[in-house]
Amino acid sequence: MSILSRPRLLLLALLAVGLYHFAGPRISLFAPVELAQGDVGGGGGGGDHSTGSLGAAKALKDGRRTISKRTVAVADLHGDLEHALNVFRMASLVSSTSESWIAGHDTLVSTGDIVDRGDDTIKLYRLFRSLRMQSKQAGGEVRNLVGNHEVMNALGDWRYVTKGDIESFGGAAARRTAMSTQGWIGQEWLRDYNVTTTVPLLPPDHPGLPKGYTPPSASFVHGGITPAYAERGIDEINRIAKSLLRKGLDEERPSGWLPPDTTPEEQAVWSESGPLWYRGYATEDEPEACRIAEKATSALGVRHLVMGHTPHFDGFVMRCPSAEILLIDTGISRAYGGEQSALVIDFELVPLPSSKQDGDRGHGKQELWRETETLSALYRGRKPKVLKRLERDLWL
Ligand SMILES: *[C@@H]1O[C@H](CO)[C@@H](O)[C@H](O)[C@H]1NC(C)=O
């Protein structure tokens, strides 16, 4: 960071992205919107926060309790273990002195591109494997997604693989074996990773949830889910993309191009409008992006589309009236030198005391509840920043 100033780094990185994506849509940077600063319950100093607080907190006389959950998302880590750990510790997911999961019931989502540009492929996949197991034991969850770079490696496209990374495997042949159907990384991708996932912002089976209430959810993917793919549904997206991934991992001498037996729907999934590459939510102008996002969120039944893939080095980009679009790739890896960041979604369902229920005539036995969703950005060395607070009162 000393020789290259940040703007120059940014230019270089953009050039790299642009060159790589030479045939693709234009890349444009959006200035992050300045929003009111505010203290957030989590992150920052790693102090007190809602970690593991499932089902705890306030109770009313009638027995109703506050139900809350924290969902954390990280984007492109690109071969940088040190920065990944910085981010996990900043978000109080991992102990400051070890690699222990300390986030209880929380959910962590990684939107892929763990591999390439840096040397720490082995260490990062091992760390995620350990966190998946540890979090499960604690009642939490780590959801791993593949990005376009995972699939590129499966297909034998090694243009972004570093020398140090190849050495860490003990050579190119060993690296390829690890990333094949016979190897541990290839097998983990097929078994433990997906292309897209939908995360409920409260546990849908929590016994304290009022009857008939379905918690809102958020969609996560590396590139972006177009309305056309949203209508096909996440099971179809995952099925088609996994099948392509398997074909790549199965090839004995992968060429970097699609395997000969690739089907048209697999080809489409790997195209620029497929979920691993699509950049429309970053590049379209605001009204158009929001128009598309509205279609995709309603087809998927989610509040937000959370995506990596298109870096914005100064911070997250939040678009549309209710943060339907959240672009969270800030170039965490030293290969970019951007912000080390995590997105935190705190969701709370709080019973309101009956004194506040002055309009309750006509609601029968129903009770009034308040949903509060707080979207916060954690950036290393900066104060946590509240991006958006969404509130809704409901008779349940
Ligand atoms: C991947 O997604 C499918 C549904 O789309 C689901 O059935 C499967 O359990 C998921 N796999 C993992 C590892 O999360």
Key descriptive features of the protein:
single chain; 396 residues; alpha/beta; Purple Acid Phosphatase, chain A, domain 2; seven-stranded mixed beta sheet; 12 helices; 18% strand; disordered N terminus; binds 2-acetamido-2-deoxy-beta-D-glucopyranose; Metallo-depent_PP-like
Instruction: Report the order of strands and helices.
Output: HEHEHEHHHHEEEHHHHHEEEEEE
Strand sequence of the main sheet, in spatial order?
4-3-2-1-10-11-12
Uncertain residue segments: 1-5, 7-55
Can you give the helix content as a percent range? 25-40%
Task: Give the CATH H-level superfamily.
Answer: Metallo-dependent phosphatases
**Distinct small-molecule ligands in the complex:** 2-acetamido-2-deoxy-beta-D-glucopyranose
Cα Rg: 21 Å
How would you characterize this protein structure?
Strand 2, helix 3 and strand 3 form a beta-alpha-beta unit. This protein has 396 residues and is of the alpha/beta class. The model is unreliable at 1-5 and 7-55 (pLDDT under 50). The strands form two sheets. Strands 4-3-2-1-10-11-12 form a seven-stranded mixed sheet. Strands 5-6-7-9-8 form a five-stranded mixed sheet. The protein has a single domain, classed as Purple Acid Phosphatase, chain A, domain 2, CATH 3.60.21. It contains twelve helices and twelve strands. The protein has helices at residues 6-20, 81-90, 121-137, 148-155, 163-169, 172-178, 184-192, 227-232, 234-250, 264-269, 280-283, 286-300; strands at 67-74, 107-110, 141-145, 193-194, 196-200, 217-221, 304-307, 317-319, 325-327, 341-351, 368-379, 385-395. 2-acetamido-2-deoxy-beta-D-glucopyranose binds at residues 192, 194, 234-235, 238.
